[in-house]
Write a structure and sequence with these properties.
Structural class: mainly alpha
Strand content: under 5%
Shape: elongated
Number of helices: 11
Low-confidence stretches: 1-25, 31-38
Largest sheet: none
Helix content: 55-70%
Number of strands: 0
Radius of gyration: 22 Å
Mean pLDDT: 77
Length: 244
């Protein structure tokens, strides 16, 4: 079989297996197909293993951030105040008048911790919308290549779906009420910052940083499965990623 024919077989087999672009395939499997074989791994098995890896990544992310102090207590993903409120805090902190802003950041992070588990199905669903053309480009990429591809291609849609979940969570924690209070207070300060969109800005800020936190841990799990045999916790993961 010519190299051209083998490449045609590879793309056809991947399409038949229903693989998505975010799914990471063992390079040995690709090499095996190009050299005339499947390395003992069926396309159905490969698809199952890749999906298992993605499920693990999303599950790991939610387990890390979707708990008390998952965001607030973790410097890697802790959500800061929006820049305009950081500027206000830097002015008020030296005189001990920034208590409301300290409370706002805490409740902002608490909101993200509540929102992440509710949005789990959204993250899982986003994977199904991806196509396969970039699968071969990301398979030999960096340790988080599939995760970054997923983030690049789905973040806009995820943000739209995640926004009402975040809004509800921020309302439950009191973050939006604090934002309203700050907006009202700033109206009475002639040189104060414009917080006319404080509520909407806070929701968008929470969404942006909440997604970053989730994708951070999806990437960490992808890297671990690629590098650490102990993270391949099922037979299908060991078969697909065994020679990565």
């Amino acid at each position: 079989m010519s190299t051209h024919d083998r490449r045609f077989v590879l793309l056809g087999a991947l399409s038949a297996g229903g693989l998505t672009a975010c799914e990471t395939l063992d390079p040995a499997v690709i090499d095996g197909i190009l050299s005339g074989g499947y390395g003992g791994l069926s396309q159905a098995d490969a698809a199952m293993g890749i999906r298992a890896a993605l499920d693990n990544g999303i599950g790991n992310a939610i387990a890390n951030v979707g708990v008390l102090d998952g965001f607030l207590g973790n410097s890697l993903v802790r959500i800061p105040l929006p820049k305009v409120l950081q500027d206000v805090q830097s002015y008020l902190q030296p005189i001990g008048a920034d208590g409301l802003l300290v409370e706002l950041q805490q409740q902002l992070n608490r909101g993200a911790e509540k929102a992440a588990p509710v949005a789990k199905d959204i993250f899982l669903g986003a994977v199904k919308d991806l196509t396969i053309p970039d699968a071969l480009n990301i398979v030999r990429g960096p340790d988080n290549a599939a995760t970054q591809y997923l983030a690049d291609r789905t973040s806009t849609k995820l943000a739209s779906l995640f926004s009402p979940i975040m809004e509800n969570a921020l309302s439950q924690t009191g973050a939006l009420q604090i934002a309203d209070q700050l907006q009202s207070t700033m109206r009475n300060i002639p040189v104060g910052p414009n917080l006319s969109n404080a509520r909407a800005d806070l929701i968008q800020h929470g969404v942006d940083y909440g997604l970053k936190g989730v994708f951070y841990y999806i990437g960490e799990e992808e890297k671990a499965i690629r590098e650490n045999p102990a993270k391949r916790t099922s037979e299908i993961l060991r078969r697909v990623f065994g020679s990565v």
